[in-house]
Write a structure and sequence with these properties.
A hairpin with a 2-residue loop joins strand 24 and strand 25. By secondary structure, the protein is mostly beta strands. The chain has 3 domains: 3-208, no CATH class; 214-313, no CATH class; 352-464, 7 Propeller (Methylamine Dehydrogenase, Chain H), CATH 2.130.10. It is built from 7 helices and 36 strands. It is 10% helix and 43% strand.
Length: 464
């Protein structure tokens, strides 16, 4: 039995339970009559607008970027229909799967009628999970904190629930800084919900019992376990060397439930591996533990942590992504220490995000780490000398794909339809790589035995 079967079979009873509670969605976009006032904008006292905040975790492939609430007490001027307000996301540039919605609304009673837009939404039909939650209220001189909701994909159903363990968003808002915290929590805060969390929500809104959606960034630990990052603050961990079923395949979780991008295994440290992702989520795993322990990121600008390089002697480096009003940016920050680091930006590049395409790539080997830009520039930092090395691709050709190999070489695809190249000195010298088949998708990879693997016409080919 393979590792994936183990974890899926251990969760099948839970999935069946979830599907019984599920409701298929037929989303229809709601008409928006008005926008909730920006939480950072000052308002006049006579407006009688008060803060509302709600977070949303997606344990699925759907990432909704809009929230529409319907006022039960306020009508439109002409049609005399209940008014619909759109509440915007305030952390969109620093998160992947966890959205924070916040704005200012008039005093009154409301219900959520849509999360998401057009076909990628969960709407508030009478039989939908949104209707089970009932309504919430906005009171004068109070902050309405609706806690966190979670959307889980199980087969063809989407399961929505309020999370009993996340009934406040103060910890998340703290990550966004004082400006947001002071704007949202200026008053006493209330939960706002008129109905308590239902038993069904407690069942499929329990993060500890949910199977995380997806796996990415596979790494092998020193004790031969395979670990990979996932949604809702989870790391899958597998081993073929252990007979105990509970230890053979397990899920290691963080307490804040933020989505993870990747994991990094380090030798000679007090942790087994690092896990990291959205909203500066950075965690370490102690060998033998079933939980991820948070690491204080110090003065690091909030964003998405994509990679962690370095060690205690050479210093630490974080590859960091932020989306702003001027574009998408990847930076590399440096600090002498990982915990409570004093992070200084040493590299900043504008980038783009497309499927199977990267304008900025990084890698790490035994002696240092490097980054490459699509324009053909390569930079490598040596941990021993603490110096940067700069190099270029042959004829300054653009980098389409790049792979780091166990023998410290780099293999790359350059230009359009060009021959693959290999470098043994981080880009100072290059040679063409002769292999008996074409390559059209990814840079070839070398095994520890020296065999070459590559994608050819959608199939994995090797020289073995």
């Amino acid at each position: 039995m393979n590792k994936l079967d183990l974890i899926l079979k251990s969760s099948i009873a839970l999935v069946i339970c979830l599907v019984l509670q599920a409701c298929a969605t037929t989303p229809q976009s709601r008409e928006v009559n008005e926008y909730a006032k920006n939480i950072l904008q000052p308002h006049k006292q006579e407006e009688n607008l008060y803060p509302v905040v709600m977070s949303f975790s997606s344990n699925s492939g759907i990432i909704p970027f809009s929230l529409i609430v319907e006022s039960i007490t306020e009508k439109t001027l002409v049609m005399k229909k209940n008014k619909n307000y759109l509440i915007g996301v305030i952390n969109g540039g620093v998160s992947r799967s966890t959205q924070i919605y916040s704005g200012k609304l008039p005093v009154g009673e409301y219900r959520i009628v849509q999360i998401g837009a057009s076909t990628e939404s969960v709407n508030g039909r009478e039989d939908s999970p949104l209707s089970y939650m009932g309504t919430f209220k906005v009171e004068k001189d109070k902050t309405t904190d609706l806690g966190r909701l979670i959307l889980t994909h199980a087969n063809s159903a989407y399961l929505l629930a309020r999370l009993e363990s996340f009934n406040s968003n103060k910890d998340l808002i703290t990550k966004l800084g004082d400006q947001y915290f002071k704007a949202i929590y200026t008053n006493d805060d209330i939960t706002g919900w008129m109905k308590p969390i239902t038993d069904a929500e407690k069942e499929f809104g329990n993060i500890e019992g949910l199977l995380p959606f997806g796996m990415q960034c596979f790494r092998e630990t020193q004790d031969n376990r395979i670990v990979s990052a996932s949604k809702i603050g989870s790391v899958f961990s597998f081993s073929d060397d252990i007979k105990d079923k509970k230890e053979k395949a397990k899920i290691i979780r963080s307490k804040d439930g933020l989505a993870l991008e990747c994991v990094t295994v380090k030798e000679g440290t007090d942790f087994d591996f690092l896990a990291y992702g959205e909203m500066n989520g950075l965690y370490k795993h102690q060998k033998g533990s079933d939980a991820l322990s948070p690491i204080d990121t110090g003065n690091l600008l909030i964003g998405i942590i994509l990679s962690v390089f370095g060690n205690d002697k050479a210093g630490w480096f974080i590859e960091h992504f932020v989306q702003s009003s001027t574009g998408l940016y990847i930076s590399i920050y440096q600090s002498d220490q990982l915990e409570k680091g004093d992070w200084k930006e040493v590299v900043k590049k504008q980038t783009i995000e497309m499927p199977n395409f990267k304008a900025f790539r990084t890698w790490e080997d035994k002696t240092g780490f490097g980054y490459a830009h699509i324009n053909g520039d390569l930079h490598y930092y040596n941990y021993k000398t603490k110096e940067w090395q700069h190099s270029k691709t042959p004829d300054n050709k653009v980098i389409r794909q790049l792979a780091s190999n166990p023998d410290q070489t780099l293999s790359v695809l350059l230009g359009l339809g060009d021959h693959p190249y290999i470098t043994k000195d981080h880009g100072l010298t290059w040679q063409k790589l002769e292999i008996p088949f074409s390559i059209n998708y990814a840079a070839p990879k070398f095994s520890t035995q020296g065999d070459i693997y590559a994608i050819d016409g959608g199939f994995l080919r090797s020289t073995k």
